[in-house]
Amino acid sequence: MEENRPGRALVRFADRACGGWSMSAITAITRTEVEAAVRHYWQVFAAKAREDLRKLYADNASVFGSSSKRLEPVRLTWVRREREYMASPAKMKVQLSNIEVEPIGSDAALAAYNMSFEAQSKGIVSATAGETGNEHIANARVTHLFVRQADGSLRIMHEHISAPVG
Question: Model's pTM, two decimal places?
């Protein structure tokens, strides 16, 4: 049995094969791990790696996008981003700054940061046909809630992106 050391959390699970209980140690979420997850997320997004991007979200995640009028399930956000960024000729550039991380217990953390986002030739759907255009968001504010999954990976449970007006 492992002892509980700083930075480690003990997790108990049922071992059906033996019918008993055993102990397994998992590492608590760290600021460094979350900062790396934030940077990885935007690298995957800018690379337009569709399937890899989907794997970074929890299945029941929710999103407030920069132009959302309401909270949306991540499935709806995927459809929009697929059309606007992934399937279009868009080339994206992202710069991150001021990443602040606040752990919430041992299996969740909130990351809040600023972002500059630029997309050239982004897909825009109009009433008549698909078009392309450019998007530039300077000093956007982003919040991601990361939750550790049973397999040890971090996934986004909630995303909120807002852009300054004017």
Answer: 0.77
